[in-house]
Amino acid sequence: MAESLVYRELGGTSRRFWRLLALLAVPLALGALAYFYIEYYGHIVTGMDNQIVWGMPHVFAVFLVVAATGALNVALAASVFGNTAYRPVAPLSALVSLALLAGGLAVLMLDLGRSDRMIVALTRLNTQSIFALRVILYDGFMASVGIYLWFLLERRMNRYIRPAAILAFAWQLLLVTGTGLEFGFNIGREVYDSVLYAPMFIAFSSAYGTAVFVLILLAVCAWEERPVCAGLLRRLGNLLGIFVGASLLFAVLFLASKYELARSREVARFLLFDGGVYTALLWLGQIAIGGIVPLALLSRSQVSRTAVAAACAMVVAGGLAQMYVTLIGGQAYPQILFPGMVESSSFFDGEIHPYAPSVPEVLLGLGAVALAAAIVAVALRALALLPERLEHTAGPQA
């Protein structure tokens, strides 16, 4: 199968492609301006403070990083698990994974407040900090996926594709598990403090990454006015449906476990009933739009291209809602400093902390999304990553 595949660059006229880049340059420029504005005036111009230290940029950053690991699943299904139907789009899957990770790390670094001191974190590694150790996970994942992509495209290296894919698969699990445990080991926040974050984030990453990959694949096919075979579309829809179902299952298990434990019942009530915007985003965003509706669309016997695209867009929207609830809601809920005791001070003890995202924060996050999209567009135009005959890889056209 691998010998019969022919890859080529993204088609279309140069003028049309430059118009696309110009369109992506707008949010990129606005994101850069937002960064310099925050860097010059300080984080006081954002909605963040010493209680909400991870704001809207972190919502975009964590979503992109989590989706990056899941976007590789399509390629791994072909190279690790032998599902040859996904082999033609494996290079695109690896590219999307690298682009999403680059976008996520960019906004993560630019939101630090002193991004010029990133060199300190790189040269003086704190091995006791899971935040610092994630730098190794990021570098290892990017390197392993880059090597895997090279082996996919270089015919002489095709014999080593499976070992490279296994290495990328192992590093993928390490990265997404470490990201989940970053929250799960945070015992200072009641919304976190659960080892279920590890398998839950694995499910989330698979759903979000697959949804983003399918949207990009459909966008590329629309750009070139080429059909998408019904067999491949059905397989991708079924794969996404499995991941969305797993995400819902772990979300329910997590909320139920929080509610059943007496020490965390109050925070569960906060998320489920009394959290205001966080409760609305949980039920309407994460559960309904990001889970139930996509499952309903994907479970039909005949799934159209429009239905799959709509389901993917809803999964992405639900993922952003979930990240907002997890990150912002987890910080807004008051910390329990002395369990079983009553404490009082002027530092918002026992109060739900308010937070409203500022325009610069949103622009910074959107700039990261535009950066990932620009990386995909330029790479597809410069490198032969697209299969010549996608419509004949897995069945009739759709």
Describe it for me?
The chain is mainly alpha-helical and 398 residues long. The chain has a single domain, classed as Formate dehydrogenase/DMSO reductase domain (Formate dehydrogenase/DMSO reductase fold, Up-down Bundle). 68% of the residues lie in helices and 1% in strands. The chain has helices spanning 14-41, 56-71, 73-79, 90-110, 118-123, 130-153, 161-184, 197-224, 230-260, 265-274, 277-298, 305-332, 359-382; strands at 7-8, 386-387. A two-stranded antiparallel ribbon has the order 1-2. The protein is globular, with a radius of gyration of 21 Å. The protein starts with 6 loop residues before the first strand and ends in an 11-residue tail after the last strand.
Cα gyration radius (Å): 21 Å
Mean pLDDT: 89
Low-pLDDT runs of 5+ residues are 392-398
Strand element count = 2
Percent range for β-strand residues: under 5%
Gap between N and C termini: 22 Å
| Run of helices and strands | EHHHHHHHHHHHHHE
Shape label: globular
Q: Decide which structural class fits the backbone.
A: mainly alpha
CATH superfamily: Formate dehydrogenase/DMSO reductase domain
- Please state how the strands of the largest beta sheet are arranged side by side: 1-2
Overall CATH class: Mainly Alpha
